[in-house]
Amino acid sequence: MSLEIIIILGVLLFLFGSISYAVPSKKSQEISKFRMEALKFGAKINIYTKADKVFKSDDFSLVNYVIKNHSSIKDAHFIRDKKEFILYSPLKLKYEDNFLELISKLNNISEDVIEVAFIGSQISFLWKEKTDITELKKISTELNHI
Least buried of 41, 97, 98, 141, by fewest C-beta within 10 Å? Predict the structure, then answer.
C-alpha cells in the first residue's frame, strides 16, 4: 500500500514539475509582450551569440536590436567605454568636421546601450533590455537624428 502511494506521489510530482516548467514565468511573459510591441514599432530583435561578429562585447545577456537607418551615417561602429562612446571603426570618421558633435549625441543616448553599429540601411545596437517601449522609441529616435 505505501509503495503505491509513493509511486502515485512521484508521478504527480513529475507531472506538476513538467507543467510548471512549461508555463512561462512572469518575467518571460513581460519580455515577450515587450518584444511583440517592439516588432510592431519596427525593431527587429536578434539574440546576441558568439557567432555574431558585428559586436565586440562578450556580455551575452545583452540583446541586439536592429532598426532602420534614417541617419546620414552609413558605416560606423561605436563602443561604450565606461560612460562615453568611442569610435571603433572606421577611423576616417574621426577626422570629419562634425565628429565631436556626433560623439556628443551618442553619449546622450541611454546608458543601457553598450554598442552601436551603423550598417548601410540598418542600425544595430546592443542594450540591456528594459521592458519600456518608450525607452526603445527614444533610443531609436536619437540614433536616427544623428
Answer: 97
